[in-house]
Amino acid sequence: MTSHPSPSPARNGNPLAYLEEGAAFDDIAGPAVSGGGARPRTRNAPQQVDVVVIGAGQTGLSVGYHLKRRGIPFVILDANERIGDTWRRRWDSLRLFTPARYNGLDGMRFPDNVHVFPTKDAMADFLEVYAARFDLPVLTGVPVDRVSRQNGRYVVRAGARRFEAPNVVVAMGTFQRPKVPAFSRDLDPSIVQLHSGDYRSPAQLGDGDVLIVGAGNSGSEVARELAAGGRKVWMSGRDTGHIPFRIEGLLGRHLMVRLVVGFLFYRVLTTSTPVGRKVRPKVLAVGGPLIRVKPKDLAALGVERVPRTTGVEDGKPHLEDGRVLDVKNVVWCTGFTPDFSWIDVPIATDGHEPAHRRGVVADAPGLYFVGLEFLYSLASAMVQGAGRDARYIVDRIAERVASTATNA
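Above: the chain sequence. Below: its structure as tokens.
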């Protein structure tokens, strides 16, 4: 795989030891736990807040940052035991697809050289540091079971705990349940199958050839890693396109990345522009363009691009062109299926996402979404887009809170 400069390691393994704006993170007091933004409650009574944020990833923490700046009481709930664990569970060699310049959050830049591609663990540690830096009230190890609405307020149930609020922000994105075709069950039991959400390293696979199903950024990164290690790799799926320059090259780092990632992805390809509205359905269907890995990189490593995998024949993967591949491993880089069945509120959905306008659900006043793919722009599912989408949602919440106070 192409190597990139590594982020500076945390001192003594402590993620709070990064430097930000000249201040040592390990001098910051206060762990990012407990519902500090919530009102006191009696034993077994629901916890009352103005806003419940579900999910403590980059978008959920960004929402929390802006809520705190406005003085709106809130709590952030996350199923993980530690902030950033969703990133830590990604494959071992993963680096973000964009440089550190674009991976900071509102109020805090990413603590590394702006041209470095951060590792997934560095990103996880950064989120943990961010929550501590701004003393955000995050409750970890609290998986949400259901959201319902009663008497004009939302009830959020998490095991034996209950939270009530007039506003709920779902910050879990669309990456919730691995999407694997039903015919995968018909593959020969001797074939090792993994979804990209479970893939960590080549050591998980058996000996022999590999079929990567899915030709997006994740599929391309995994294909490159496996091929660079000497595997014969086929990659199946629709062409998603690619940005026409080397993002890690000199010209790319200093000029082109600003034009494409900073301008095109963030400002041009939005739901407010005709071209953005035209591109959005394709992005939702097949994913965004390849950013770091190029088709010619894969070809140089011997990765063979093949048509879509459409079924199984004699226990082996069957391709759209009629070929049958004799492989020992299949890695499903086919994305994730959104699961909003736990939201017991009548909202329209197209099967991919709830009906919304920039994350605001008209059918359910007070219910909001952030982190959805192309929620407002192509950058919405990237770290870069988290702050803008969060600011917009918090502005709407503040308007609603003010309106409620005026009418009380």
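Residues 230 and 301 are 9 Å apart (CA to CA).
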